[in-house]
Amino acid sequence: KQSEWKLAVCSFENAPDIHIARLMEIYCEEKFFGEGKMDQAQFDSAFKWVNDHFTFLTHESSEPSTLDSILERLKISVARTGIRGAVIDPYNYIVLEGDGSETEKISNMLTRVQSFAKSYGVHVWFVAHPSKMQRYGNELPRPDGMSISGSMSWWAKADVGLTVHRKEQDTEIICWKSRYRWIGQTGIAELSYNKDTGTYKESDF
What is the pTM (predicted TM-score) of this model? Predict the structure, then answer.
């Protein structure tokens, strides 16, 4: 919103219309449905902003998505709309092709995505869920790159690693890796989350 980036979203769990509604809520900080929802002027402004800044890569084939098909569509998005970033959510819907173990396949996938990102000047965010974690009392431990199922490569090959860790009253945003010090540093920020609009602000707790 601040930098006028255009992004492509490759989401396997939510349809584009759901993402559009949520992004409109985030943009104008008002609900899309229900009492107190955004008015028509806010709707028009938010819809235009989403339409101008987001491309949705839909997968309508009955065949599972491959990395080749995703990267090809991202290349088209770079050429047509000038995207600066891409979100793949979540990674485990991608068919890992080739020989070798799951660990080797994930490592190869991340290497190919890094090569694409550098070649086309696109930042790529992977959404990856942690493997099942042991609960201690009422609290789950904070997952990090080594908690993602499948491969240690998530820790080793990420330039920046972030965890969104929901708690009872607030949300912790943990940066567990930052390869370059001029981009950021490891640490924790505590934010409060507004479920109605999907927005975060500095925590009052």
Answer: 0.86
